[in-house]
Design a protein that fits this description.
Layout (H helix, E strand, L loop, with lengths): L5 H12 L2 H12 L3 H17 L5 H26 L24 H19 L4 H24 L5 H21 L8
Helix pairs in contact: 2-6, 3-4, 3-5, 4-5, 4-7, 5-6, 5-7, 6-7
């Protein structure tokens, strides 16, 4: 589905804006959004939360890891169901190889956004001082958004793939933290 030429226009504009110096940095940056890297980072960050003296640490660790696991599973299932072709209207940037998997939704965008929001929710759950949360918001959300933009720059996703990935990642983080919320029951 084409949005009045907007998707084509965005991809053509980014293709014209490419240069070798930026492309090499973009290829390195897009690596940070691969699900394997994101899952590894979430797991590494979850370990100290399990040992954290804060009683909400284990729940924060579970929410962080579960958000990525949910995101990977739902993204892959959606890719198989929708089976959208990757854009072929622009060349891929530099020596980047176009992935063979389906395009919709972007796994890089979904996993990086799930990670970013899950880490912010983990910080909130363990009651990290507000000034640190405030500092983390633009950095982490910028990371999630930036990874999605790298996929457009490289010419391997449609803009709607990225938007759907961001939404899916956010939903997975919120869902995981809802599922891992500790509730006190009173009778």
């Amino acid at each position: 589905m084409e949005w009045f030429g907007l998707e084509h226009g965005i991809l053509y504009g980014l293709e014209r804006a490419r240069n070798d110096s930026a492309t090499s940095r973009i290829i390195l940056l897009t690596f940070l959004g691969q699900w394997q890297f994101v899952f590894a980072m979430a797991t590494i960050l979850a370990i100290p939360l399990l040992r954290f003296k804060n009683p909400n640490g284990p729940a924060a660790a579970k929410g962080l890891v579960l958000s990525i696991v949910l995101c990977i599973g739902i993204t892959e299932l959606t890719k198989r169901i929708v089976s959208r072709e990757r854009p072929d209207i622009v060349s891929t940037a530099g020596n980047y190889t176009k992935p063979e998997s389906a395009s919709f939704p972007s796994g890089h965008a979904s996993c990086s956004m799930a990670f970013a929001l899950a880490l912010l929710l983990a910080m909130k759950r363990i009651q990290t001082p507000f000034k640190w949360q405030l500092l983390a918001w633009p950095l982490l959300v910028g990371f999630g958004i930036g990874i999605g933009i790298t996929r457009l720059y490289l010419g391997v996703h449609w803009p709607t793939d990225i938007i759907a990935g961001w939404a899916l990642g956010a939903a997975c983080a919120l869902g995981a933290f809802f599922l891992t919320e500790t509730r006190e029951t009173t009778f």
